[in-house]
Design brief:
The complex is a heterodimer of chains A (729) and B (169). By secondary structure, chain A is an alpha+beta fold. Chain A has 16 helices and 31 strands. The chains are: A alpha+beta (729), B alpha+beta (169). Bound molecules: FE2/S2 (inorganic) cluster (FES) (2 copies).
C-alpha cells in the first residue's frame, strides 16, 4: 500500500511531536559510522572485478576548436594498453542537477580546456595513466572567449525585476551606497574524486558511481548511451562528499560504460584530482553591484542587486545570485538583475547553496557598510529592515525567525562587547575585530518515494536516496524508528540503489525533508495497518520499544507482524503549498578575527551561528552540516579562489596544493545553535533544510570582522594578505 | 616486482608494476580499500598509513620501496565490531560526515599521538619542554595535513581529545 500526499495545505497535526519512542531529534550516532571509521564503507572506486580494466580520460588542451585527429596507434602499441576509446557519445560536460537527460556529447569539437576527448583503457591503472599522458591529438583551434569581463553579455528577461523607482530614490535618499564586489570561481572539492565502475550483463548496465541524485542520474546515463533506463542500475551507497559536484552524470561514468560495452569486460574510471577541477562544475566567478538607499533612521528605501556570471555556450544554468534578495529585507524601491556571459571555461553549475552562497555574503557586506554610513549598529540596522511579509508577494512567510536568530546569536556571541571603531582593539601584533551577517536560504520540497518493510525482526527502510555525508542514514532510521516505536538498532536503512523506490536525491538542502517525508508517509501507512490489526484508530495507537499499545493492552509488534511482513510505500509531492506561504530558512553568523598588523594575515578566532530550520531531525548531524557550511564560509572569505589562465582558460590551480581549502588549524571553535521552530508549511515533519544555510552569509561575518579589526573593506574575494596589508592602520 | 610487506601484522606478498604506489598496492592489489585516494599528490592526507611507526602519505611512495616494512592501515586499527577507542570517539563526536577522509584522519591521529608522546614539537608549540598535554590548537595543527571538505575539524579535535583523556586515565 502506498500513502501518497500532495502537499497542498499546511500540516495541522504535527504527529512526530506526539510519538513515544523519543529518538527523533536526538543526536544519535550515525548508523553508518562504524563502517566509515574502520574503512569498510565501500565507495565507488573500490569495486573490483577480476577482469576489470582501468580507464583514464584524456583532456583537450585548447580552449576552443575542432579535434582534427586523435592518433591512437602509438598508445595502443604500448604494453598494457587495451584500447583508446574515442566514441562520439563521450560527454563534453557533466549534466547539471536534475537535467534528467544527457548533457552535451561528442569529442569532435572542443569548448573548453580540460574537456574529455578520449579514454585510454589499460590492464593496469599505471599503464592506462601512462598511455593517457602520451595520446597524440591535433586540433584546429578556434578563437576562444576567455575573459568574462571582456565579452558581450546578455540580460535574460526572466532574470530582471523591479519595483518602484530605485534610480530616483538613489538620488533623493539622505544615505546611499553603490559599490561593486567580485568573488572568484569556487570548487566543490569533495574529498572523493569522481569514480565509476561499469559492468554489463547482456543489455543491462550496472554502474557503481558516486552520485547525489540517482533517479535523474540513471536517466542521464541511459540517454547518454542511447539505451532504456530500465536497463541501467546505479549504486551509490556511500558518496565521499558532493557539494553539488555529483548532481549530474559526469564524463567518467559514460566513458566507463562505453568502454565496458566495447571491450566486454568491467571498466573503472577514476578522475585524477586535476581533472575534477578542470571538468566538473564550479561556481562561476561573479561581479555584484549593490545599491542601497535609506532614510536617517536607517529604514531602507531602496535595494538594488545586480550581478554578472557566465557559462559555456548552450548551458542553461546561471548562478541564482540574488535568490534571497527579494525577501530578506524590506524596501519599496527595488531593482534586481543579472547578466550572463558565454565563455570557453569549464562548466559552471551548482556548488553548495548556489546563489545564496555568494549573493548573501556580498549583500551582507553592503549592509555592514551601510550601517556604518548610518552610524548604526549593524545588528540594529538589520533588525529594523526585516519585512513582515515577503515584499512584492501577497502571501505570508510560512515562518521567519531572522530577528530571533540575530538576537540569539548576538547575545550568545557577546556582540555588545564589540567596539564599533575599526582598528580600536589590539592584542600585541594582532588587530581584533567582530563581524556579523544574516543567513538566508530558500526552502524546497521535492517528490520522493520510500518503502518500509516491517518484519518480526524490525524495519527496513529502502529508497534510492543518497547520504553524501549529510546524515541520511541516521535521520531516515530515526524517522522510521520514532513512528514505528523501534529503537534505532531495529531499523536498517538501505540507500543509493536505483532498484529501490526513487527518492528526492541530495541537493538544494531538500533531501532530508523530502526523502524524510516519504519515509514518514510509509511509516504512517504501517501504523494504519497495525491499528487495523488491533481494531483501533491509528491516532489511538502507541508504538514504543517494539510494543504496540492500544486500548490499554500491550502487544509485541513481532507477534502482530508474524510471518507475513507488513509493507508500505510513502510518496510525497510538492503540491501548491508554495502559493500559500513563502518558505525559507534563516539564521545569523558572528565571527571574531585577528589580523596580523605586520603580515596582513587573518585568523578566525571564533565563530557562532544560530539557525532556524524547522524541526531538527538529528541534533548531531544537523550541527555537523552547519560546521561544514561555516567552514566553507571561512574558505570563501580567506583562501578559496579558482584561477584561470587568461591565454587559454585552463584552471591554473587545479589541485589542493594551490586551491586552498581551510585546514584543521584554520577552523577555530565553532558554536552552532538551533532555534526551536516548527514549519507546518514545509511538510508533515515540519522540518526544513539545513545543509546549506550554514554557508549563506558566513563569509561576510568574517570579512565584516576584518573591517572592524582594520578598517579595510574587502571588495575582491578572498581576503588574502595583499588585499589587507597595504591598507593597515 | 616482488615485494613483501608486513601489513597489519600479516605477511603479504605483492607482485606489481614498479610504478605502483603503496596506496594503489593496498587498494588495488591487496584488497585493503580503507585507505583513500583524494589527490594522489600528497596534498590531502586521505591515504595516510603508518609505516614503521610513522604516518606517511601512501600515494607519495612506491610499493616496491617498502620491502620488509611494517605497515598499519585503517583495517589494522579496528573493525566495525571491535573499534579502537579513537574510532569510537570519532563516531561519538561525529568526527566525519561523508567518511572519505576518515581512515586517513584516524591513521594520522594514531601516529600523531605517538609523536606527541615522544616529545616532537609542532609549529604551535610555545614551550618545547612541555608538549605532552596537547591543547586543542596543538591537535589542530598536527592534524592539518589531513583535509576534510565536510569540515568535521572541530569534531575531529574533540574526538582525539577524548581518546587522549581516556588513555591518560
Ligand atoms: S591521496 Fe595521498 S595525500 Fe591525497
Ligand atoms: S568526512 Fe567528508 S571529507 Fe572529511
Amino acid at each position: 500500500m502506498t500513502l501518497h500526499l500532495k502537499l497542498d495545505n499546511p500540516d495541522e497535526e504535527n504527529r512526530l511531536d506526539h510519538m513515544a519512542q523519543g529518538v527523533i531529534g536526538t543526536g544519535a550516532n550515525r548508523p553508518d559510522g562504524a563502517l566509515k571509521v574502520s574503512g569498510q564503507a565501500t565507495y565507488a572506486a573500490e569495486w573490483q572485478r577480476p577482469d576489470m580494466a582501468y580507464g583514464v580520460l584524456v583532456r583537450a588542451t585548447v580552449p576552443a576548436g575542432k579535434v582534427e585527429k586523435i592518433d591512437a596507434s602509438a598508445v595502443e602499441a604500448m604494453p598494457g594498453i587495451v584500447k583508446v576509446i574515442t566514441d562520439p557519445k563521450l560527454l563534453r560536460v557533466p549534466a547539471q542537477g536534475m537535467a534528467d537527460a544527457a548533457p552535451a556529447q561528442g569529442n569532435d569539437e572542443v569548448l573548453y580546456f580540460g574537456q574529455p576527448i578520449a579514454l585510454v583503457v589499460g590492464d593496469s591503472f599505471e599503464a592506462a595513466r601512462h598511455g593517457a599522458n602520451h595520446l597524440s591529438v591535433s586540433y584546429l583551434p578556434q578563437e576562444a572567449r576567455l575573459d568574462p569581463d571582456a565579452v558581450q553579455t546578455e540580460r535574460p528577461e526572466g532574470k530582471q525585476s523591479s519595483q518602484g523607482d530605485l534610480d530616483g530614490v538613489m538620488k533623493t535618499a539622505p544615505v546611499t551606497l553603490d559599490e561593486v564586489w567580485t568573488t572568484p570561481g569556487h570548487n566543490s572539492s569533495a574529498m572523493e574524486p569522481h569514480a565509476s565502475m561499469a559492468e554489463w550483463d547482456g543489455d543491462r548496465l550496472t554502474l557503481h558511481g558516486s552520485y547525489q541524485m540517482l533517479k535523474y542520474n540513471r536517466n542521464e546515463l541511459a540517454d547518454s548511451l542511447g539505451i532504456d533506463p530500465k536497463n541501467v542500475r546505479i549504486l551509490s551507497p556511500y558518496v565521499g562528499g558532493g557539494f553539488g559536484s555529483k548532481l549530474g552524470i559526469s564524463p567518467e561514468a559514460v566513458a566507463a560504460a562505453l568502454a565496458a560495452r566495447d571491450l566486454g569486460r568491467p571498466v573503472r574510471v577514476v578522475m585524477p584530482r586535476q581533472q575534477v577541477f578542470e571538468t566538473i562544475t564550479h561556481r562561476a566567478q561573479c561581479r555584484q553591484r549593490i545599491r542601497l538607499a535609506a532614510d536617517e533612521t536607517g529604514k531602507l528605501l531602496g535595494i538594488g542587486h545586480d550581478n554578472r556570471v557566465y557559462n559555456l555556450p548552450d548551458e542553461g544554468f546561471a548562478e541564482p545570485v540574488t535568490q534571497a534578495t527579494p525577501f530578506t529585507y524590506a524596501a519599496e524601491n527595488r531593482a534586481i538583475g543579472q547578466e550572463v556571459a558565454t565563455i570557453n571555461r569549464v562548466i559552471a553549475g551548482s556548488v553548495r547553496a548556489p546563489g545564496e552562497a555568494i549573493g548573501v555574503p556580498i549583500f551582507e557586506n553592503a549592509m555592514d557598510e551601510m550601517a556604518e554610513k548610518l552610524g548604526m549598529d549593524p545588528l540594529e540596522f538589520r533588525l529594523k529592515n526585516i519585512p513582515e511579509t515577503p515584499p512584492g508577494q501577497d502571501i505570508p512567510f510560512s515562518s521567519n525567525m531572522l530577528a530571533e536568530a540575530l538576537r540569539d546569536g548576538a547575545e550568545k556571541f557577546g556582540w555588545d562587547k564589540r567596539n564599533p571603531t575599526p582598528g580600536a582593539v589590539q592584542e600585541g601584533e594582532w588587530l581584533i575585530g567582530m563581524g556579523m551577517a544574516s543567513a538566508v536560504r530558500v526552502n524546497m520540497l521535492m517528490e520522493s518515494k520510500a518503502r518500509i518493510t516491517l518484519t518480526a525482526e524490525g524495519a527496513t527502510v529502502e529508497t534510492d536516496m543518497t547520504d553524501i555525508g549529510t546524515g541520511t542514514y541516521a535521520i531516515l532510521t530515526q524517522i522510521a524508528g520514532e513512528l514505528l516505536g523501534l529503537p534505532m538498532e531495529k531499523v536498517t536503512t538501505k540507500l543509493g540503489d536505483t532498484d529501490l523506490p526513487p527518492g528526492s536525491g541530495s541537493g538544494g538542502s531538500f533531501g532530508a525533508a523530502s526523502s524524510g517525508t516519504s519515509v514518514y508517509l510509509a511509516a504512517m501507512e504501517l501504523r494504519r495497518q497495525i491499528a487495523d490489526k488491533l481494531d483501533c484508530d491509528e491516532a489511538d495507537l502507541t508504538l514504543k520499544d517494539g510494543q504496540a499499545i492500544a486500548a490499554n493492552k500491550t502487544h509485541a509488534l513481532a507477534d502482530l507482524v508474524g510471518e507475513t511482513p507488513f509493507e508500505a510505500e510513502g510518496h510525497i509531492e510538492p503540491g501548491d503549498i508554495a502559493s500559500k506561504a513563502f518558505q525559507a530558512t534563516f539564521g545569523s553568523h558572528f565571527a571574531e578575527v585577528a589580523v596580523n598588523r605586520h603580515t596582513g594575515e587573518t585568523r578566525v578566532r571564533r565563530m557562532l551561528g544560530t539557525f532556524a530550520c524547522g524541526r531538527v531531525l538529528n541534533e548531531k548531524t544537523a550541527r555537523s552540516q552547519c560546521l561544514g557550511g561555516m567552514t566553507f564560509g571561512i574558505g570563501m572569505a580567506l583562501t578559496e579562489e579558482m584561477l584561470f589562465d587568461t591565454r587559454d582558460g585552463h584552471v591554473v590551480n587545479n589541485d589542493f596544493a594551490e586551491y586552498h581549502l581551510p585546514v584543521n588549524l584554520d577552523v577555530p571553535k565553532l558554536e552552532v545553535h538551533f532555534l526551536q521552530e516548527r514549519d507546518p508549511y514545509a511538510n508533515p515533519m515540519q522540518a526544513k533544510g539545513i545543509g546549506e544555510l550554514g554557508i549563506c552569509g558566513a563569509a561576510a561575518a568574517v570579512t565584516n570582522a576584518i573591517h572592524n579589526a582594520t578598517g579595510v573593506r574587502i571588495r575582491d574575494y578572498p581576503a588574502t594578505l595583499d588585499k589587507i596589508l597595504p591598507y593597515l592602520p | 616486482m616482488k615485494t613483501s610487506l608486513r601489513i597489519n601484522g600479516e605477511e603479504r606478498q605483492l607482485d606489481a608494476d614498479v610504478r605502483t604506489t603503496l596506496l594503489d598496492a593496498l587498494r588495488q592489489h591487496l584488497g585493503l580499500t580503507g585507505s583513500k585516494k583524494g589527490c594522489d599528490h600528497g596534498q590531502c592526507g586521505a591515504c595516510t598509513v603508518i609505516v614503521n611507526g610513522r604516518r606517511i602519505n601512501s600515494c607519495l611512495t612506491l610499493a616496491c620501496m617498502h620491502d620488509g616494512d611494517e605497515i598499519t592501515t585503517i583495517e589494522g586499527i579496528g573493525t566495525p565490531d571491535n573499534l579502537a577507542p579513537l574510532q569510537k570517539a570519532f563516531v561519538e563526536h561525529d568526527g566525519f560526515q561523508c567518511g572519505f577522509c576518515t581512515p586517513g584522519q584516524i591513521c594520522s591521529a594514531t601516529a600523531m599521538l605517538e609523536e606527541a608522546k615522544a616529545g616532537w614539537p609542532s609549529f604551535v608549540s610555545d614551550d618545547l619542554d612541555d608538549i605532552d598535554t596537547l591543547s586543542d590548537e596543538e591537535i589542530a595543527e598536527r592534524m592539518s595535513g589531513n583535509l576534510c571538505r565536510c569540515s568535521a575539524y572541530p569534531n575531529i579535535v574533540a574526538a582525539i581529545r577524548e581518546s587522549v583523556k581516556e588513555t591518560a586515565s
